[in-house]
Amino acid sequence: xxxxxxxxxxxxxxxxxxxxxxxxxxxxxxxxxxxxxxxxxxxxxxxxxxxxxxxxxxxxxxxxxxxxxxxxxxxxxxxxxxxxxxxxxxxxxxxxxxxxxxxxxxxxxxxxxxxxxxxxxxxxxxxxxxxxxxxxxxxxxxxxxxxxxxxxxxxxxxxxxxxxxxxxxxxxxxxxxxxxxxxxxxxxxxxxxxxxxxxxxxxxxxxxxxxxxxxxxxxxxxxxxxxxxxx
Length: 231
Description:
This protein is mainly α. It has a domain at 102-229. Helix content is 63%, strand content 0%. The chain has helices at residues 5-16, 19-28, 31-47, 52-65, 72-75, 79-91, 105-110, 120-129, 133-139, 149-156, 165-181, 186-196, 210-219, 223-229. Helix 1 (5-16) runs antiparallel to helix 2 (19-28) and helix 13 (210-219) packs across helix 14 (223-229). The chain is elongated. The chain starts with a helix and ends with a helix.
């Protein structure tokens, strides 16, 4: 744990559950200190499930007073972190925040370079039932590579293992929600396939793989046409 003075003071205030003092300290701290403080809260929440809601509420109050640190866009890299930060992200329109590469949290989470299947069903549920405007906005945001979040998944995520049925259904639903806002451009299919060619697991792809099925659905073309572009 980072023991810089602001973080140590933060830990002391957590012990007393002084929400107001914690918010004041967070607001006055630097962005780097904020990242360390948020990491501390997440770790505390995961270790003390009985106070999970307390820590979630703290983060929400922080984000309402001060914009989410940009570095958190990359740091929220799995379902546990996403679940913990979701209330705060929803309350502060944090899902649509972009970093220097114009990536939103969705770009980095879905296009993760580690072999991790994205939480499609969880994201779809947020979109359907939470009426989350910043999430819908993020889904329709292009980064500096001119890729939308689901396109980042299709291009970069190295996990080609089959999706379970409900996750595949959710992925198709997110693609549909994305294209309703920003229609797919066929030129982007070539870009994605060229990026996929760099993947070390490319040889495991065939016309029945869900990645090929999703690419075909996204760009309204036959699976065989996608496979041809990957040659």
